[in-house]
Amino acid sequence: MKKKKSAKAIIPRRGPLQQRAELASTSRAFPRIKPNLIPKTGWVREIRDALGISQSQLAARAGVSRATVQQMERAEGRRRITLASLDRLAHAMGCQVAFAIVPRGGSLDQVRRAQALARAEQLLKEKRQAATKEELPARELERRKERLAAKLLRGSKRKLWRM
Q: In angstroms, rounded to a whole number, what is the distance separating the alpha carbons of residues 56 and 35?
């Protein structure tokens, strides 16, 4: 008699380095849009106008009233729309919502490094205040900061993000 396989698939645990690598390759699909290039009226209205669909037509396709579409467009322009509403409007226009959180100007590793440097600077500042008022040369301070940042990157994630 054959044994039945479990319904649950066993997913191997990934480490943070592998997670960051996978996310980095996935996030490349999303362009980094500068804030000044986001339409002031919002993407829904911009796309609706580009497609030549009126609010009434979009409302009928989305199964809501024209006033609701108007409210949703205003909410999206103010960045207050729900993802469910955005998805409903996008679907009605033959589009889809592509929602992502991507690192500003680089990779997740660069975000971690910037955080490590900021945290190292904070820790060194606290250490200098507790110690004597002896000033170290800028070069020595920078060297210590780099060393401490490297240690933070190798160590506990909690210590890295503590502020």
A: 29
